[in-house]
Amino acid sequence: MLPDFKIQWYPGHMAKAKRNIKENLSLVDLIIEVRDARAPLASANPTLSSLGEHKKRIIVLNKADLADDAVTQKWQALFPEAIVFSGKETQSIKILQKKLDQIGQKLKADWLQREKGLRPYRALILGMPNVGKSTIINALSRSSKAKTGEKPGVTRGKQWISLPNGWQLLDTPGVMVPEAVIGNTGLFLALINAIEEKLYDEELAALHFLKWLLENKPQTLSERYKISNIDDPLALLEEIGRKRGCLRSGGYVETSKAALILLRDFREGHLGRLSLEIPETLVERS
Ligand SMILES: Nc1nc2c(ncn2[C@@H]2O[C@H](COP(=O)(O)OP(=O)(O)OP(=O)(O)O)[C@@H](O)[C@H]2O)c(=O)[nH]1
Ligand SMILES: [Mg+2]
């Protein structure tokens, strides 16, 4: 039996995050909520969403290039308003740009009707750490003004970035939602690298991920690691370590290293396009 997967949250973090979001919301006309297309529910922001209930919102399912296309289409059918996005594909940038243009035109018409002066349209980019908020801003502004990086917590402070189409986007640090972590949510957040590594045990995350793969996508293991007849997560991690040269003298396998290889393989798409959450499984479970 694997021990439960747990995340060590900082107390007080959430209250500060809420205060920041409230402050930022008062500055903008629109919320662009970025989620990860591989886990659109785990990477949602239910608590924080309720703070901005009265603001217009666009949901962007980012990193679609890493998710299973067929599954993403199902999510799109459930959330027809959501924009499926990949920072790596120009087509999806155009779709988001068009959406912003439409909303901008509506705002302008409304301001003119109410005889209000014109000003730039403003949007707040909101989402869990590492979902790709800054990358989206850079894609839209065709610049690299927003700092991006493969670890969570890259954006530290607020930054306004202007787009050629009259919008100003407010980049913000990613926000975690500890209250919302139930079932596999914490594990999925760790896998998509939305949680700082010091807050959880990476080897345990890898073992839980292997258990999930065995139950949901066993072919991934044979395709990537050429392993097909092991059905115990720890034995599987050891075998991955053996195949990837994570060995110490005496044939001892460094499973902590093997865990990092597995996590990196998933995050960089080497396990193929893989969606962690699938609408059907959610329906079956409820
Ligand atoms: N494959 C893929 N990678 C992406 C995509 N969007 C962003 N990334 C990568 O994901 C990582 C995180 O991107 P950021 O834009 O820094 O994420 P963020 O949400 O601003 O993160 P914080 O500032 O830490 O909250 C970077 O390594 C990006 O290159 C995408 O659509 N596809
Ligand atoms: Mg950022």
H/I helix tally: 11
Principal-axes shape call: elongated
Helix content: 40-55%
Strand content: 5-15%
Structural class: alpha/beta
Largest sheet entry:
6 strands, mixed
- Which molecules are bound in this entry? guanosine-5'-triphosphate, magnesium ion
- What is CATH's topology name of the largest domain? Rossmann fold
Describe this structure in words.
The chain is α/β, with parallel strands linked by helices and 286 residues long. The chain folds into 2 domains: 13-179, Rossmann fold, CATH 3.40.50; 201-285, Conserved Hypothetical Protein Ylqf, Chain: A, domain 2 (Orthogonal Bundle). It has 11 helices and 8 strands. It has helices spanning 13-25, 46-51, 69-78, 90-113, 133-141, 185-191, 202-216, 219-225, 233-243, 255-267, 279-285; strands spanning 30-36, 56-62, 83-84, 121-127, 159-162, 167-171, 247-248, 252-253. It has a 6-stranded mixed sheet, covered by helices on one side. Strand 2 (56-62), helix 3 and strand 3 form a beta-alpha-beta unit. It is elongated and about 80 Å long. The model has no long low-confidence stretch (mean pLDDT 90).
